[in-house]
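Morning!

This is the sequence you dropped in the shared folder:
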Amino acid sequence: MNSQPPRRVIRAGFERIPQVAGMAPHQHAEAYATLLPDGAYALYAYAGRLQVEAGDVVLQSPSDRHADAMQSAGLSLIRLPLRAETSLGGVGRGLDIDDARRVSLTDAYAAAQMLAALLAAAAPRPPAEAEWSDRLAADLAAGPRLRIDAWAAAEGLSREQVARRFRTTFGISPAQFRTELVARNAWFRITGTSEPPSQIAAEAGHADQAHMTRAVRAPTGARPASWRASKSFKTPDRAGRRLPRHLTVADAAGPAEATASGDRHAASELCA
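The structure's back. Tokens below.
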């Protein structure tokens, strides 16, 4: 499956989600963090297969393809916007999130700043590596130019075996996983530096600049030239702070509004 998953808008604030089976692969344009006061779920993302439990903090980077599988009878979560994040994300455990949780009830942005300080001082938990598909995801993230057939041979597996099992776990073929990681890395350089696009294309692993343009447009919705021309990817909210491009003032208003619509969207917004 080489089609791009749907892109969703985050809902800042608190939400209670009833028990559902899970959520198919999807993406978000902006970076955000999720606090999990109670419940548990598995997250399948560019960072690997991650186990999320009550008290954890999930760091979600921009344009990360991920899917979720609930492992509890419902769960509560608090989503907070992050200003910038170029890592693959991950799960923080054992952090003192009580203050950020309280502040999030009235000011998601202040809570996000508190949370960012906690995350900066703590290394994320490593992803699961119980299966070889987990190791392949980690190896592709570490070296997107990895040859999948060579990796399979070193593991005593055929490329077909690798592709089937990887797709079962992550919902995508290892080749597409690698392609998206390469495009994502190029996108970060396009939006975060003034390097020439031709240089980025060559160093990121694209055949040429035209190939990079197509690859970047698929997950981000715009050509590299459009991202460069926009200069700023944020718009001010009513308090003068900055909101991610796809996060509206209504979405960021707080837990009261988020909860009011939460019941209607819960089944389709699991860990979105």
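Headline: The radius of gyration is 19 Å.

More detail when I'm at my desk.
O.
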